[in-house]
């Protein structure tokens, strides 16, 4: 149910009364007042049916963040989308109730300008204390190379987080140092997306051996990561569990394709390899062009 309104409290009370809504979207409602947020918090705490809530493009500052935080302590929500909600700083700290939440399984926090200082610390704490969250989406933020806290939280995960999405976070090879220390001990993480970060071949070299040792990651996203396929070929040849690898929008080149072909002859687990449909024009040989 998608709602766009100003007088929200009465309608939210009605939704709770009839108790049939499973997905509630109140995105783009920046003018919702205190009474509306109070009614929403009551709905979240009391509803048995409501499983997904979307609050996107709404500033989650001051009272909205506080009311949502208190509601999350006892809510039955399993999916929460807070895209572009201005969560950086105090709002994310206020949402600390997520650490004690035992119902939420998916948390999506894209486009929140989450930074490499206090926000990275809060995200690390979330993973240290929350053992039931299965998907954490942090794409399109600015966590950068301050992955130490996040990786420390990942090491504490023994039965929870399976999907971590870190696309477009200004991460470089320097940040891969922290990930390299974490990958060998991960037990449950299955999907890791590092696409649209400037990792370079240097970054891949840092995590190459740890990836080989890792026994949990099944899907690895490296699209638009400024790498060559040759850098991944050795990992692909040695990996016994990787099932999907995304290398789109990278400098694959002919040599990279040959290296991948050789690696695929050895690899017995890969089910999907994502590459661009065609080589860039400058990589096509004159003979191929004539054909």
What features would you describe in this structure?
By secondary structure, this protein is of the alpha/beta class. Helix content is 38%, strand content 10%. It has a ten-stranded parallel beta sheet with strand order 1-2-3-4-5-6-7-8-9-10, with no helix packed on it. Residues 282-291 have low confidence and may be disordered.
Brief overview:
With 291 residues, the chain is of the alpha/beta class.
CATH-defined fold name of the largest domain: Leucine-rich repeat, LRR (right-handed beta-alpha superhelix)
Residues in β-strands, percent = 5-15%
Number of strands: 10
CATH architecture of the largest domain: Alpha-Beta Horseshoe
- Average pLDDT over all residues: 91
Strand order of the largest sheet: 1-2-3-4-5-6-7-8-9-10
Number of helices: 11
Major pleated sheet: 10 strands, parallel
Please write the string of helix (H) and strand (E) elements: HEHEHEHEHEHEHEHEHEHEH
CATH superfamily of the largest domain: Ribonuclease Inhibitor
Number of domains: 2
Query: Which class of secondary structure composition applies to the elements?
Result: alpha/beta
Radius of gyration: 22 Å
What is the CATH C level class of the largest domain, in words? Alpha Beta
Helix content: 25-40%
Span of the ends, CA to CA: 55 Å
Label the overall shape.
Answer: elongated
Structural features:
Leu-rich_rpt, 291 residues, alpha/beta, leucine-rich repeat, Leucine-rich repeat, LRR (right-handed beta-alpha superhelix), 10 strands, ten-stranded parallel β-sheet, LRR_dom_sf
């Amino acid at each position: 149910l998608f709602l766009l309104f100003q007088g929200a409290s009465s309608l939210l009370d009605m939704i709770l009364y009839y108790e049939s809504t499973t997905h509630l979207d109140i995105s783009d409602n920046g003018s919702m007042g205190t009474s509306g947020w109070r009614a929403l918090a009551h709905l979240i705490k009391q509803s048995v049916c409501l499983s997904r809530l979307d609050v996107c493009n709404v500033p989650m500052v001051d009272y909205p963040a506080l009311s949502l935080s208190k509601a999350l302590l006892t809510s039955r929500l399993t999916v929460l989308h807070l895209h572009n909600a201005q969560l950086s700083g105090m709002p994310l700290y206020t949402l600390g109730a997520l650490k004690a939440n035992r119902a939420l399984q998916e948390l999506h926090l894209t486009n929140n300008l989450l930074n490499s200082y206090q926000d990275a610390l809060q995200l690390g704490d979330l993973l240290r204390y929350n053992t039931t969250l299965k998907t954490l989406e942090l794409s399109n933020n600015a966590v950068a190379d301050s992955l130490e806290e996040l990786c420390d939280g990942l090491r504490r995960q023994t039965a929870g987080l399976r999907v971590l999405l870190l696309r477009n976070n200004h991460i470089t090879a320097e940040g891969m140092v922290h990930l390299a220390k974490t990958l060998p001990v991960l037990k449950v993480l299955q999907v890791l997306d590092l696409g649209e970060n400037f990792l370079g071949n240097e970054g891949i070299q840092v995590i190459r051996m740890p990836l080989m040792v890792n026994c949990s990651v099944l899907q690895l996203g490296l699209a638009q990561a400024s790498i060559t396929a040759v850098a991944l070929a050795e990992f692909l040849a040695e990996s016994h569990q990787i099932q999907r690898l995304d290398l789109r929008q990278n400098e694959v080149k002919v040599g990279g394709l040959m290296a991948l072909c050789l690696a695929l002859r050895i690899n017995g687990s890969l089910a999907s390899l994502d590459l661009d449909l065609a080589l860039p024009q400058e990589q096509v040989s004159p003979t191929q062009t004539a054909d």
